[in-house]
Write a structure and sequence with these properties.
Blueprint (H helix, E strand, L loop, with lengths): L40 H18 L5 H8 L8 H23 L2 H21 L3 H29 L2 H32 L4 H4 L1 H15 L15 H24 L4 H23 L13 H30 L5 H7 L1 H17 L5 H19 L8 H28 L7 H28 L7 H29 L15
InterPro entries: MFS, MFS_dom, MFS_trans_sf
GO cellular component, one term: plasma membrane
GO molecular function: transmembrane transporter activity
């Protein structure tokens, strides 16, 4: 998820938001020369589309118990409403970026936006779990095409100061998304019905399509060959990730050692290994194997996957707990998450200042230890829990911890990446983020469901406690990895010259 680019020359890192992919790195040189000023219409259309994508990650969380009751969804299956979206989005990002590069950016953007808008309307009309999960999956695939194309339009339409302002606004959309999505989901669900959290995308998407089709310039591009898209690689990675998520989700209803779970795990392993084999042999691989040799990028993406998983999984469990156990309305749940969102922002500010004095790995590991400690604190909440006394302290500590991890990960992952590889590198980081979100919900939901059903009072309490105990263990493992693998050298004033 993206962060706000720092001004040139500023010796600081801008915060990287947990619900937004990192834009392509922008290097110095020609990019800093102000060309002719362009109208802001293209930016407005790209931002409108990205707002839809960002909100749809978190907007569903506050509506989960309501949707579950309405469609008779079992507690263990609720996580599919979140994971279907982020898994297809994460699995398809590399292919989406390739399509936007090889085909018309305009065409990729408008196609992605049209599909996303249509899938949103279908989601609102869904009458069963299967229909809603399928529509959410199509939304995710559309987002995988839409996000890289929107970012490409911004970076190719604007130059110099205009580009810096545009990327700052792109980052702001992501920063507001985490709070706005949960709050909007709560407000819409309380005042109307859960269907409107999807239907609201219809008029916004239609207007963006109309304006975009008239204002985005057409480009002439050479017709690519199918081999250029590496469709076998894309199918293998998406299939492998979907099988892995299904295996984790199946544990809630079938158990960890059931045939469902074991077979899905095996299929996932085979497909992901096939993906790596395909990438080694492909003439134009979706993901160039040499990227694995970029230690800072690989370690940063691994930590990004871990911290995003903890963040989105924690929001998922807490949304259900405050509504099922504390009896909050969807609207009250949205408001209850505001301190958490502000704490994440505060954490990014803290990390920015600490990076001037400490190594990135120390800052990231400290944030992860705080996240783990907060998870332990939250795991003690019982059926008689009070929001202010039992949840708020843990949420604030976790928010600060999460914010402290995103900044060093964003900065070090893209450091030293040549501009020719910036797209692939940021795509890798974005994929880690989205896949982390899906796996985080799947893993924590699977761990939580071993203690009880998320749809009953006693079950949700036991599941919440078990889930956050699991989150604490995961946070400590990722903290140890960050300390071991992330860069040891301190970041200098050059940090301000990086735009992710």
């Amino acid at each position: 998820m993206s962060k706000t680019p720092a001004r040139h020359g500023a010796a600081q890192a801008a915060p990287h938001d947990p619900h937004q992919p990192a834009p392509h790195a922008v290097t110095h040189g020609a990019d800093d020369e102000d060309g002719p000023r362009r109208p802001w219409t293209v930016l407005a259309v790209a931002l409108a589309a990205q707002i839809l994508v960002v909100l749809d990650i978190s907007v569903v969380n506050t509506a989960l118990p309501t949707i579950g009751r309405d469609l008779n969804i079992e507690g263990g299956n609720l996580q599919w409403l979140v994971t279907a979206y982020v898994m297809m989005s994460g699995g398809g990002l590399l292919l989406g970026g390739r399509i936007a590069d090889l085909l018309s950016r305009r065409g990729a953007f408008l196609t992605g936006l049209a599909l996303f808008t249509a899938a949103s309307l279908v989601s609102g009309f869904a009458g069963s779990t299967g229909e809603l999960v399928a529509a959410r999956a199509v939304q995710g695939l559309s987002a995988a095409l839409l996000t890289p194309a929107a970012l490409s339009l911004i970076t190719t339409t604007y130059a110099g100061a205009q580009r810096r302002s545009a990327l700052a606004m792109w980052g702001a959309v992501g920063s507001l998304g985490v709070a706005a999505g949960v709050l909007l989901g709560g407000a819409v669900t309380t005042w109307t019905s859960w269907q409107f959290i999807f239907w609201i995308n219809g008029p916004i998407g239609a207007l963006a399509l109309l304006v975009g089709s008239r204002t985005i310039a057409k480009e002439k591009v050479a017709r690519p060959r199918l081999a250029d898209l590496d469709l076998p690689g894309a199918a293998a990675v998406i299939g492998g990730l979907v099988a892995l998520t299904y295996a984790l989700g199946a544990t809630a209803t079938h158990g960890w050692w059931s045939a469902h779970t074991v077979v899905a795990m095996a299929v996932s392993a085979v497909l992901l290994m096939a993906f790596l084999a395909i990438e080694r042999r492909a003439a134009k691989p979706l993901f160039p194997p040499h990227v694995w040799k970029l230690d800072a990028l690989v370690s940063g993406t691994a930590v990004m996957l871990g911290i995003t998983g903890l963040l989105v999984g924690a929001v998922f469990l807490t949304s259900i707990f405050v509504q099922t156990v504390l009896g909050y309305s969807a609207m009250e749940t949205g408001v209850a998450f505001l301190p958490f969102a502000f704490a994440i922002t505060a954490g990014t500010v803290v990390a920015r200042h600490l990076l001037a004095h400490l190594a990135p790995r120390v800052v990231a590991a400290t944030g992860l230890v705080m996240t783990g400690a907060a998870a332990v604190l939250l795991s003690y909440a019982g059926t008689d829990a009070d929001y202010a006394a039992d949840l708020l302290p843990g949420l604030i500590i976790m928010g600060v911890g999460v914010g402290m991890v995103f900044v060093p990960v964003s900065v070090t992952s893209m450091a030293g990446i040549p501009s020719s590889h910036a797209g692939v590198a940021s795509g890798f980081l974005m994929t880690g983020h989205e896949v982390g979100a899906a796996l985080g919900v799947a893993v924590l939901s699977a761990v939580a469901s071993t203690a009880g059903s998320l749809m009953t009072l006693d079950g949700a309490t036991a599941a919440f406690s078990r889930g956050f105990t699991g989150a604490a263990v995961i946070a400590m493992v990722v903290a140890a990895y960050a300390l071991w693998r992330m860069p040891a050298q301190r970041v200098t004033g050059g940090i301000g010259h990086m735009h992710h």
